[in-house]
Amino acid sequence: MLGFVIKKPIIMEIDVYEIVVIGGGAISLGALLQLQREKLSKEQIRKCLFITHASNELKNCPISNLHPKIAVEARKQDLSISLLKEWIHKDDGPRSKLRPPIFSLGTMGGLANFWGQQVWAVPESGHWPVTEFTDYDEYFSICNTIINSFTDQIDIRHQQQIFKEASRPLGCSTKPFLLRNHRDGEDVVASDISSMRGALIRVLNELAIPTLNLEVKKLRNQKRHVVVEFTDGSTIETKRVALGVGALGCGKVLLESFGLSEFIFDDHTPYTGLAFGYKHVSQKNIQLNSGLRAHFNVETFLCSSGDRYFASAYNLRYFDLSLLVSLLTGRVHPWLVNKQLPEFFDNLPAAIQCWTENTKSSICFSMEDYTLSCHRRDLGEGDEGYSSFKKLMREKNFRYKENSVTPAGQGFHYHNLRFNDKLTNSISVNEILTEFSDRVCVLGLESLPAIDVFPPTLTGMAVASKKFSNILAKDVL
Question: Which residues contact 261 (CB under 8 A, 6 or more apart)?
Fold first, then answer.
């Protein structure tokens, strides 16, 4: 485990904070990077507050209950995975115990501790967040600035040329854009899957922003301020709140705040399969140049226009052996952590994940009995994006065997948060926040009605950066 440590700045006795940022994941990092670019004085920074949204009473989650990748990475990174609340699948009956729980993490870095590390902008022809930016150039520029804050080893400007090549009817293939480093002062650290957590803690330390390790229960309006109430009963007041706690965290906080009973959000859950006859790309040079082990994500397939899709090919030999066994058996074997298969297995089929415009699902949470229900769009045979991907596989002489579709809630591309009131009317998160005027802002993907087929993390961080820039432009500091 990398030795990331948050230095504890002194929290001043402030009656009313100027800005409170809530959330310990990639979205909050997008906001903090913008705060860092503003080059504010120490006095101005001390009027801000960062809240991790981690509980002091977290319930430890049995490793066997977790998604296999999360379970394995928890072992590898020595992370204590805990639940803010465990939710039960009410639509499965006795089978509910066979499905992994959907949960909020109490770990710095959030779900980015377990992500696929793909960093992509969205092409102009796709579903980029047009309402959040002046134009596409501004969106792409912010994405590029965020990547540069991590490393100079990735130039996402090359993606523009790839988007052009991917506009052909069946799309194209390319090497993946994987974030495996973060800056630490003048150095670039090879932190691999811990890069997001390392960058977040580095920025917190450089800003010396006051930090609280507490879970937020709800928000309340009080004259011209917002009262932030924690689960331990304590409160603070602030002029503005920037919520970066994800769809689950945001949904729970706002349900408590408004006394509603249900919230719903969407997930992007890919097809899975195997590609036989796949000739894996050699990663020996990558391994030597970066100081990191070869990554299992070896190739990306994409179509940026028409019947659009985004797919990743994974070399099973480069999987952590404990992950491979966990996927097959459902159990984590600690003695297999950080071990890989020998070169003899390099000709195994490639594991495939494929996202299309249709691989969408929705999850509804009820606060009354802490249950959830899931709904998946009927895919049928009419998914033209998936058909285009399979045609590309045949064009490349791969024999593609379909496996299954990822269960709703296990895609971890959460977005489009909304709420049901007592009249069963659906209210978007942006609508419900009008109650706070402009004093509360949701930073992340949960505020977007749709996301693209491309990995959404970089886009979410760009949205958070732009929204936080808008907050700072109001002369709150």
Answer: 255, 366, 367, 368, 420, 422
Length of the chain: 477
3-state SS of the chain: helix, strand, coil percent to 5? 30, 25, 45
For residues 314-319, give the mean pLDDT: 84
Q: Three-state DSSP class for 328?
A: helix
What angle, rounded to 10 degrees, do the helices at 26-37 and 457-472 form? 40
Q: Is 323 helix (H, G, I), strand (E, B) or coil?
A: helix
Cβ pair 420, 412 in contact under 8 A: no
Q: Quickly state the pLDDT bin for 391 (edges 50, 70, 90).
A: very high
- Rg (alpha carbons) of the chain, rounded to whole number: 22
Q: Per-residue DSSP letters for 33-94?
A: HHHHHTT--HHHHTTEEEE----TTPEEPPGGGS-HHHHHHHHHHT---EES---EETTSGG
> Which tokens hold the place of 83?
């639940």
105 DSSP 8-state letter: B
Is 245 in contact with 253 (CB distance < 8 Å)? yes
Q: Answer yes or no: are the C-beta atoms of 132 and 466 closer than 8 Å.
A: yes
The CA–CA distances, whole Å, from 102 to 267, 268, 297, 407 equal: 12, 14, 25, 11
Does residue 445 surpass a pLDDT of 80?
Answer: yes
pTM: 0.90
Centroid of chain to Cα 170:
28
